[in-house]
Amino acid sequence: MRYLISVIGAGTAGLIAARRLGELGFDSTVYEQKQELGVPVRASGILSLTGLGRLGVDYSGCVTNVLYGANLHAGGRTLRVVSKKPVANVLDRKMLNDACYRQAEKNGAKLIMGRRMTGNALDELSKGGIVIGADGAVSSVARHFGFDGIKKFALTYKAEFDVEAPESGIVDLFFDKYSFNGLFAWTCPNRKDLLEVGVGLCGGMNAKEAFMKFLRNKEILDLVGGRKAVAEGASMIPLSMRKHIVDEKRRVLLIGDAAGQVKATTGGGIIFGGSGALIAADAVARHIKDGKALNSYETEFRKKHDLDLKLHSVIHRIYGSMGPSAMGKMISTLNALGMSRFLSDYGDMDRPSLVLKRFFLRRLAR
Description:
This protein is α/β, with parallel strands linked by helices. It has twelve helices and 16 strands. It has a domain at 4-65 and 87-150 and 242-316: 3-Layer(bba) Sandwich (FAD/NAD(P)-binding domain). Helices cover 39% and strands 23% of the residues. α8 runs antiparallel to α9.
């Protein structure tokens, strides 16, 4: 039986899935409701080098800055986690999507822009083939096919300013439960002369109001002064996975933000969502070639990533529940234990399970 493979959403995850399907010998059609490929400026692009290396994406022309680590601030104290080697890249997200599309197109994918998929259209696609929902946190694919909801979201507001950061390769994170409930605020040098300032919240507050309050902090005022933002905007990010991400009977799979494949600690989803796209494409190929169940995608993804995603959720709950004073004391304790040096040398922003493994192995080796 010949299946039509439809990918709904031309974001990074959807395009990675289309590329991988082409590599495996299967053509796909990618439907995007926007008229133009790309993402809004409000989407940040801080991606670990190790994570990027696993996605098979040629991102060489998309890098706008190289990062070496971060300063974590709370309660007047700072934990400095900075490596001697680069640990992450800041990528231009539109350029990244363009690169992902070129690779997908090269491998046989077809892109249809400006197509908003109705329920009837989705039903027709699933009857005649396989549907991969890659259409974001408020996925119309997930809603139409009755997938359970995502239980936790973060609201963010960020802006970019034409200023230089004090340290061009360092991100600064600011934790204050009472100002940024459940997440944090940040500054990131997207380029040498372009500073991103943002806040993230998990409800109970207005993201833009929290952002404007953050701008009035002396430290941030010293950076941006009275400058006008060159770009700004809000977004909603899932912080938990759906209970199920495959409908075997109707041959529908969810990937990326549509599946909730996002780190709860930061809201970053490209690495886990991109991995989900690769695993889903492989499962689709096995289903068509050998009749294997599409549910193998969900089984494999959870086997590979469940522990790390759960650890991200645990870490998020811990810091999200602590006030600035308690968080500051924890930072002092971590500094006293030498964790700044350890995390600088052995940290991994995507895989906390690997960090724990390295920590215990070092303790046993003493």
